């Protein structure tokens, strides 16, 4: 393994990956350099230069790395481009299978040797069949990468579609929410109590949680991607608009980056008012941040990094605060802030259409689920 890592080819790949790491937020550059081929790396660099959204690039990189690792474990060869239909069917068979049949048929599903290799290398963490959504996403990204190479794949073949449909039916996995419990106002208060100190990490986490919740329940990718240039100071507003003597509250406008439901051309903004603005400005002042990413990494010694948090880091920060608050991290995720904002709005009697003006949900039906599902709100 040492010879592989120090080979000129791998070193060259590592250098190319380093050059695009600022966009892709790559933490495992050396591992990626071993797994990805020269053509893979060149494709990623092309996508960066083409201006593809950062979140899409991260997803493509993550899925491409997994696919290459799986191919090496399952076929002893890198991914072929384009992938033959038989390989696509093998991928489905290895990831979508019937747990009950596996109990009596050891050859059903992912082979034990393939599973051990992927698990040992850290690429396989789930126990049992994968979620159908994960498999579909990886196949979709596999198809996208194939098209970027100007090749045609068998991703639309009837055999593949039928295999996925039958496999999903056999797995019979219950649909799970992204966060089992919503982070409503009372839960948020407990989390904020854990970061009431004056350390940089406390100031950052307090600002992060308050901004994410109060700005409409922002997605973790939106929080991680916030930059100083996305903030615009607005005129203060009255705590009670009907009382000219009520105290003035600081106000900011936040420009939203591209997401799965919004693009830069949408030029969307949301308002942030009061205590969250104060918390955010305290963090920026203490960290001496006047440009670039707002929420950044802080190492174990309290040193601030210039690089932005990743969406995954936002989720880990939230779970860490949940644990410190004496709650079960398995029941909460960063999406709980988004669900919690709408659930809290419902609890306070705020009309749904008014609430989604800030949350920016494109589907009233989807957002309405948080209003009508009492169990989720509690």
TrEMBL record:
GO BP annotations of the record are: chromosome segregation; DNA integration; DNA recombination
Which residues lie in coiled coils?
Answer: none
Short name of any one Pfam family annotated for the protein: Phage_integrase
Which InterPro entries is this protein grouped with?
Answer: DNA_brk_join_enz (IPR011010), Integrase-like_cat_sf (IPR013762), Integrase_catalytic (IPR002104), Integrase_recombinase_N (IPR010998), Tyrosine_recombinase_XerCD (IPR050090)
The record's section on PROSITE patterns has:
TYR_RECOMBINASE
DNA-binding as a keyword of this entry, yes or no, is yes
Q: Which UniProt keywords apply?
A: Chromosome partition, DNA integration, DNA recombination, DNA-binding
Keyword DNA-binding in the entry? The reply is yes
Domain Tyr recombinase as annotated: residue spans: 178-378
Give the Gene Ontology MF terms in alphabetical order: DNA binding
PANTHER family per the UniProt record, alphabetical: PHAGE INTEGRASE-RELATED, TYROSINE RECOMBINASE XERC
What name appears for this protein in its UniProt entry?
Answer: Integrase
